[in-house]
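Mods, move this if it's the wrong board.
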Amino acid sequence: MISLDEFLDRLCRVGVDKGPRGFPRRRRDRQILMKSILLTLDSARAYTEPEINEQLVAWNRRVAPAIQTDHVTLRRLLVDWGHLERTADGRSYRVGFPPGGVLFELEVEDVDVCATVAAYQEVLRRRPRRQGPPEP
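Not the wrong board. Structure tokens:
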């Protein structure tokens, strides 16, 4: 089970710190990023392909700017892993519920990922820059 603390920590470290980088290879980090995408979507509605693309571009820009990937790759990963369901004609997408998915603490469902990342970025901006070693 992924705790709220782990979710927040890994989301910020993987999505914001030390970029640019590709989509992570560690399964747990992938699941955390996918969950953060789902938290930005409305699970009660269907999205057209352009709408889902727009949502994925916005997620990448606001939540995981360190991840260098395109919305097509993100959409494909979400569909392949069962997090998004696509109609047979490919015109509509809905949030899916993959069988045997990773479990998250219930508190994760209430996270505003955009606000969380924005607060983390503000802390990074305010942190004093490292200076060279002190002079002898």
